[in-house]
Specification:
It is built from 9 helices and no strands. The protein is mainly α. It has one domain. Helix 4 packs antiparallel against helix 6. It is a multi-pass membrane protein. It is found in: Mitochondrion inner membrane. One of its GO terms (cellular component) is mitochondrial inner membrane. Its main location: mitochondrion.
Length: 223
Amino acid sequence: KKLTLLREMLAGCGAGTCQVIVTTPMEMLKIQLQDAGRIAAQKKLMAAQAQLSPSSAAGAVEPAVETRTTATQITRELLRSKGIAGLYKGLGATLLRDVPFSIVYFPLFANLNKLGQKDPNIKAPFYVSFLSGCVAGSTAAVAVNPCDVIKTRLQSLQRGVNEDTYSGILDCTKKIWQKEGPMAFLKGAYCRALVIAPLFGIAQVVYFIGIAEFLLDMLPKHR
């Protein structure tokens, strides 16, 4: 029995919510590691400028010590200072991004894929599934990109010089709109679409070809 569009969207909503609960800590650590290099470079530049300034002649300026931040260090620090909740910083913004993404992606993919089915009982050709995954993934990625920008800003624990701090989703949205303009919410949309399109295209091809089922059938069956 064919699902209605509303039921397809609700199924996508449930899938997105489950995914967020599992992946938010990993997403959080990824952002911290990406930010670490930017912050370190900024500190190094500031130290170099301080050494060149006239006032530095009066007193020795200690050079910036470059330390390599690891995911394990960040995890330990977050657990020590904030507990499990520290790993879920920005959970609301992540839900705001990934749940709408799933609501858009899954129904759109399902309906695009059906266009390539000559018979409802026969799977669509693999290239139809691939193209459907690419189109649905890139469309959903661009649609929720403003939420991705907000999520990334909220999950950045370290701030560069003169960078804003945010108290929540609404405060972050307001400050970005006022200081950077509406186009700031589309930053990285093109790159996200380029990444998400092949990712979901390949995932859907692998799923619809039935590689997982084939591998499971090869396993010895226990009575």
